[in-house]
Design a protein that fits this description.
Layout (H helix, E strand, L loop, with lengths): L2 E2 L1 H4 L3 E2 L2 E6 L2 E4 L11 H5 L7 H7 L3 H8 L3 E5 L12 H16 L7 H25 L3 H32 L2 H13 L5 H13 L21 H8 L10 H28 L3 H47 L15 H8 L2 E2 L3 H7 L5 H6 L8 H15 L5 E2 L1 H24 L2
């Protein structure tokens, strides 16, 4: 079998030429990337690199995946080459793999089906309560606000639940997981499973990396981290007054992300990609919604009511998802090992019954990023071992109270905005 050096492998990181390494084996994924179930972008993010830990984090059904890998194999690392490329820490990597083996021995990757059934049941119960509220009390202002709040809550909780099944359905290749995922995100939320998969997996593969994590692509609306604001300032880029972004965040971020940007992007993505299955699931949501609420508000009123629900849900979604990431390091590719990459980009929020429910267990963001296929009800069990590994290698394990984590979002935006202003005014 041909052997390659890291210097040679790192040259194959182009859009039309992609190699990657898994367990010291070299694979040419150039043509396969367009057929990759997780999307071509996520596999491309590791072109020219060792992708071993990302590969095992994203794939549970290894027997199935290896059938596709076999024809892509073109060689292996030369014997004198280290297993880790660039400056990735091999000691941390080995310790992390031992930790993952411990988690497997503890059966922490096995799901409690009753747990997820009860979560789904409580979402459906909220939908029923909302319908009862509007039917019994009428469509006055108070019943409308109560119904909207209940439905926004059910939508948020459905969002966290589809997040669980999104990871499990793709990685475990279970038909039932796929169906449940599409039911939750399609019929209960009116969104697209494939759109979510392709976007979210990129975030997990390279969190907080510009050009690789879509969640930090702010379309010039915000500047994030420490590098981007300075670069914008030096180039005299002023699409918005970024020194006030911590203030206009309240007007642009939470209120409009879901009702405007996501809603439009999801529908257009399904149409452009001709994803008729997901479109049918989403149509079932809209059909159910308008059949249910048009008799109370009329068609136009139902449209306004729907967007008001999305407006409320959007606030919940933005604050929860940003409290773990936007306050952390955001930069270009640093080429760290898997463990260090996730710890640099994520932080936790303290555990409590409310915090677990409110965030869909995304308060354990560190553990979720390290082990994306681990069911959320087991994340707290592996957390002490993750803390110990961080302590061993001198890596900071950040954990905060909920209110502190939410306030840090504004503090982070204010800091980045000031960095932009200083660079912008500097001659």
């Amino acid at each position: 079998m041909p052997t390659f050096s890291w210097e040679e492998i790192q040259k194959h990181n182009l859009r039309t030429d992609k190699w990657l390494v898994i367990d010291r084996k070299v694979y040419n994924v150039t043509k396969w990337s367009s057929r990759h179930p997780g999307g071509h972008r996520v596999i491309s993010h590791y072109a020219g690199e060792d992708a071993t830990d990302a590969f095992f984090a994203f794939h549970r059904d290894l027997d199935l995946v290896r059938k596709f890998m076999k024809p892509l194999l073109i060689g292996e690392l030369a014997p004198e080459e280290p297993s880790q490329d660039r400056t990735k820490n091999s000691e941390i990597t080995e310790d992390f793999r031992a930790l993952k083996k411990t988690a497997e021995d503890m059966n922490l990757f096995e799901s409690n089906h009753l747990f997820f059934f009860l979560l789904l049941a409580h979402i459906i119960v909220m939908e029923i309560i909302a319908l009862f509220t509007i039917s019994y009390f009428g469509n006055g202002w108070i019943p409308t606000l109560m119904t909207a709040f209940i439905l926004a809550t059910s939508q948020a909780q459905a969002g966290w639940l589809q997040h669980d099944y999104g990871h499990l359905s793709v990685y475990k290749k279970s038909t039932w997981n796929h169906i449940v995922h599409k039911f939750i995100i399609g019929h209960l939320k009116g969104a697209s499973a494939n759109w979510w998969n392709h976007r979210h997996f990129q975030h997990h593969a390279k969190p907080n990396i510009f050009s690789k994590d879509p969640d930090v692509n702010m379309l010039h609306v915000f500047v994030l981290g420490e590098r981007q604001p300075v670069e914008y300032g030096k180039k005299k880029l002023k699409y918005l007054p970024y020194n006030h972004q911590h203030e206009y965040f309240f007007l642009i971020g939470p209120p409009v992300l879901i009702p405007l940007y996501f809603q439009y992007q999801i529908i257009m993505t399904m149409i452009v990609r001709k994803d008729w299955v997901d479109l049918a699931w989403a149509f079932s949501y809209y059909a159910r919604f308008f059949i249910t609420f048009s008799p109370f508000y009329g068609v136009l009123g139902a449209i306004l009511f729907l967007n008001f629900i999305r407006f409320l849900e959007s606030h919940w979604f933005v604050w929860v998802t940003q409290m773990n990431h936007i306050v952390m390091e955001i930069d270009r590719e640093p080429y760290r090992d898997w463990f260090s990459t996730q710890l640099a980009a994520t932080c936790n929020v303290e555990q409590s019954f409310f915090n677990d429910w409110f965030s869909g267990h995304l308060n354990f963001q560190i553990e979720h990023h390290l082990f994306p296929t681990m069911p959320r009800h087991n994340l707290h069990k592996i957390a002490p071992l993750v803390k110990s590994l961080c302590a061993k290698h001198g890596i900071e394990y950040q954990e905060k109270p909920l209110l502190r984590a939410l306030m840090d979002i504004i503090g982070s935006l204010r800091k980045s905005g000031q960095l932009w202003l200083d660079a912008y005014l500097h001659k």
